[in-house]
Design goal:
Elements: H1 3-31, H2 37-49, E1 54-59, E2 64-68, E3 71-84, E4 87-96, E5 102-107
Length: 108
């Protein structure tokens, strides 16, 4: 093994170990923390308001288990009500409790 190959191997190993330590530290010190459901609701309301005013909104305060295909997480269920073509329309959404990402949304 040449000195250059040894340096590359050492850098690769350092990168892998650093990445694993980052994952461990994140999970140990707060990776399991959940976002405030009210903040998630405000984000969803903001997105809906870009299209039209909303009449009402809600979100459950307790995260529940959720699985879509092979992906498992904890989520909050919520809903938005707004007028579309002079008719009141309701939407239900599912938001990841850790990231706030909307995983699913459908019109009721």
């Amino acid at each position: 093994m040449t000195a250059r190959n040894g340096q590359l191997y050492q850098l690769s190993l350092t990168g892998v170990v650093g990445g694993l330590m980052g994952i461990f530290i994140t999970r140990f010190f707060g990776g399991g923390s959940r976002l405030n459901p009210d903040n998630i609701l405000e984000q969803v309301k903001h997105q809906f308001r870009q299209e039209s005013p909303i009449e009402g909104a809600w979100i459950e305060k307790h995260a529940v288990p959720f699985q879509k295909f092979a992906v498992k997480s904890r989520v909050y269920y919520g809903g938005i009500t707004r007028y579309e073509d002079d008719k009141l329309v309701q939407y239900q959404f599912v938001a990841d409790a850790n990231t706030g990402s909307v995983l699913d949304i459908h019109r009721l």
